[in-house]
């Protein structure tokens, strides 16, 4: 579905005019379509309806409580990578029993918190972590449910910073070490083997890397059974890409068909961890033009959002479409769209054909629902933006814009 469309030359989110929201709450702000979020989750989950599965939304993509609550009501589990994310899931009213705890650097405190809350599974990423989880479970008198995140050494074809599935990345354990670690875990009274997991990266736009990884996981799965080790969960991770520009990622149905075919007749429950594929195209960042300038024949459009609000272009050189909130007949120009941050890397587009705008015009930075607010910071002592949810003709602020007092809370004016 297309949650953002023009009506009478004005951009709308569902039935609400974006410009009306900007007048009411100011800029910049993130704007999400609840209908699109609902549709994307239901479509992804339904694609796996023919097999036992649990769709665990990747909280790191967008961790707003309203979004977590929405997905929880739709039957989601959750993939978390920190105690804070687990606390968010619980604060949204969700049960820990549907939570997968991933991440390469879990602390003792985080492990204890997960054990005490009774999470579904720890995805363990090293022998050292396995020993730590065992020790904490013993100290608490519990048995930790675990899977090993196995690194299949598969190239994902995505940006190097979001590729995670080859031997030179920090994630997971090598296939060659997995069986021995499982055998060791089986001997422990404080570890309960529940599954095997992998994750090869993010924004992947072909099914082939997923198929290759799953074939490696299937080999390990069968080898474990040959050793008499039963695993109930096959965690395929996430990483399915979306359209930012001209990408052609597989849809949920195509992805599901490929994964189900590759799994074959294994008797297990599939665990899926989509994030970007669910929320990415359901959100935008709305920003106001502060001024335009020319320097040596080069055009700059300076807006009130900055790299602290949306880091992806600066961090990855990522493309986000940029549209005028109110269409005009002024045509287009080639320009850099930049923010007010004191960094040359503070940009949303470089040398891009964009609408001709003037001061106070509104721009929409598209496909910002994933890794937008979640990566935002207070650099340059800038408050993080508001977040707004629209459903049909209704709009609700689901996170208030930060104020200066929020930024200095906890600080002291007293030096030694």
Structure description:
The protein is an alpha/beta fold and 416 residues long. The chain folds into 2 domains: 4-32 and 280-406, Lyase, Ornithine Decarboxylase, Chain A, domain 1 (Beta Barrel), CATH 2.40.37; 34-276, TIM Barrel, CATH 3.20.20. Helix content is 29%, strand content 27%. It is built from 12 helices and 21 strands. The strands form 3 sheets. Strands 4, 14, 15, 16, 17, 18, 19, 20 and 21 form a 9-stranded mixed sheet that branches. Strands 5-6-7-8-9-11-12-13 form an 8-stranded parallel β-barrel, surrounded by 6 helices. The protein has a 3-stranded antiparallel sheet with strand order 1-2-3. α9 links the parallel β12 and β13 (269-272). α2 (34-47) packs parallel to α9 and α8 runs parallel beside α9 (252-263). The N and C termini lie far apart (58 Å). The relative contact order is 0.16.
Secondary-structure blueprint:
Blueprint: E1 4-7, E2 10-13, E3 16-17, H1 18-25, E4 29-33, H2 34-47, E5 53-58, H3 65-73, E6 77-80, H4 83-91, E7 99-101, H5 108-117, E8 121-124, H6 127-140, E9 144-151, E10 173-174, H7 175-186, E11 191-197, H8 207-226, E12 233-237, H9 252-263, E13 269-272, H10 276-279, E14 283-295, E15 298-303, H11 312-316, E16 322-324, E17 332-338, E18 347-355, E19 362-365, E20 386-391, E21 394-399, H12 404-408
